[in-house]
């Protein structure tokens, strides 16, 4: 299993069963270095969707009680687990990444730190579960991702924007259920 993407790189690789094992390994490492409860760390993103080709990066959702009161011990524990805070600005989310080496060029894992059981937490868990339960929707999502790759991708932000309408439509199903 080879993980990692360079800055602004977008590529899709075939599904690997080892992604689940890698998430479990990293989760144990995070639990060892932080005081976060086990149920506040979840595997999300495309590598958490069975048989879904994906970017070779493990996405981890971590929930805290209040993002506005970030515990310095948590940040220290994440650093001890190999994660560094990124300068990414997203509403209701703080992003950390793990890199292949100290050049900080190739990211292998992301932590999406959000409020536990908040709207974003629930949306991201719902998205993962919905695609795992609905193979036809999962295939539709894959087709959208591949359409972007085939049109000569121009970077990760454009890739995210390209998928956004589909993702938001799935989020809306959570509210409707």
CATH class: Alpha Beta
Globally, the shape reads globular
Radius of gyration using CA atoms only: 16 Å
Query: What is the name of the CATH superfamily?
Result: Beta Polymerase, domain 2
* Total of DSSP H or I helical runs spanning 4+ residues: 5
Topology:
Layout: E1 5-6, H1 18-33, E2 41-44, E3 58-64, H2 72-80, E4 83-85, E5 94-99, E6 106-115, H3 119-133, H4 135-150, H5 156-176
Parallel strand pairs: 3-6
Antiparallel strand pairs: 1-6, 2-3, 4-5, 5-6
Helix pairs in contact: 3-4, 3-5, 4-5
Overview of the molecule:
There is one protein chain. This protein is α+β, with helices and mostly antiparallel strands and 177 residues long. The chain has one domain: 2-Layer Sandwich (Beta Polymerase, domain 2). Strands 1, 2, 3, 4, 5 and 6 form a six-stranded mixed β-sheet that branches. Strand 5 and strand 6 form a beta hairpin. Helix 3 crosses helix 5 and helix 4 runs antiparallel to helix 5. It is globular and about 40 Å long.
Summarize the structure.
The chain contains 5 helices and 6 strands; from the N terminus they run βαββαβββααα. With 177 residues, the protein is α+β, with helices and mostly antiparallel strands.
Defining traits:
177 residues; alpha+beta; Beta Polymerase, domain 2; six-stranded mixed β-sheet; 6 strands; 18% strand; globular
